[in-house]
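User: Fold this one for me? It's Oxidoreductase molybdopterin-binding domain-containing protein.
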Amino acid sequence: MRFPRFQTSLAAVALAALAPGAFAAGLGDPASEVVLTVTGEIATTNRDDAAVFDLDMLTSMDTVTYETETIWTDGVQTFTGVLLSDLMDRLGAEGSSLSAMAINDYAVEIPSSDWVETGPIIAYHQNGAPMSVRDKGPLWIIYPYDDNDAYQSEVIYSRSIWQLDRIKVLE
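Assistant: Here's what I get for Oxidoreductase molybdopterin-binding domain-containing protein.
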């Protein structure tokens, strides 16, 4: 049986959408070193069962800047990054919490109740510059500590993981 060209094209598009890695088009592929890998209960991936990001991919997302003091730095600092809630939304995360892990395998759990518009960012710039591993980078979970007294607690400080490189969304 012969199909008209239009139907054949539609069939090809439908099959491509079902192909493994189909979500990669939505995220793109990292062009440089991967700085963040997200796994677990996510719907959107671009490499196997993970969503991987280089710094350019993160900086291309909507950015948020917080001016805040931290217990680890002197004076008010400016942090720029992507809202954790935006990243979780973009990946279709469905979980009760996430495990955030650092380069040295230190891990913290962040509940989904923190994934809010006024919540933490995954900061990639401090005072307008990229953060080196030596300076708690390249990624650091930063809450707007000065904007909300509830963020000035040992629990929140413990969730402010630096040298972040992996996130696993948990059921």
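One thing worth pointing out: DSSP finds five helices and ten strands in the chain.
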